[in-house]
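Long-time lurker. I teach an intro course on protein structure, and each term I like to show students one example going from raw sequence to a predicted 3D structure in token notation. This year I'd like something fresh instead of my usual example. Would anyone be willing to generate the tokens for the chain below so I can use it in lecture? Attribution to the forum is fine with me.
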Amino acid sequence: MKKILFALTVVAFTLASCKGKKDVNNTSDSSDKTATTATVTPTDTAKKVITPAYSDPDTVGAQTSPDPNAKMTLGKVSHKYIKGGCTSVLLVANGNSEEVLIPKDKLAKEFDVDGMSVRFDYRALRMPNPSGCTTGRVIEVLKMVKAQ
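-- Reply from a regular --
Happy to contribute to a lecture. Here you go:
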């Protein structure tokens, strides 16, 4: 008897939840006279032309893509905190002041030159500064290129 009662309850809830759902394309609300439905046929999608923001320059009708490094942060490699025990840091202009970013990992030899201007993407990390580094915040450098 309990099994039958349980089965009936499940069926009743299922039917009630199915009736509660509205069909988005078939709005039966008479107050909304402006609602229209659109159907997409395979011939409609064949006519649409989607152009990417950055396209391959070898393709016909290609757009000139902006410099992909333009959105990267511009900074300067500095060794001025090495005496305190800090490794190379990245100095970034922040209004009238200068922000000190401490890379978690050692910089590649090609970028570890005092005074070199670089563009880089980074992610701020929530970890304590290395011993000897009292100024700045620790970051993970995701991508780095020489600035032009």
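Some talking points for your students: The two ends are 81 Å apart (CA to CA). DSSP finds two helices and five strands in the chain.
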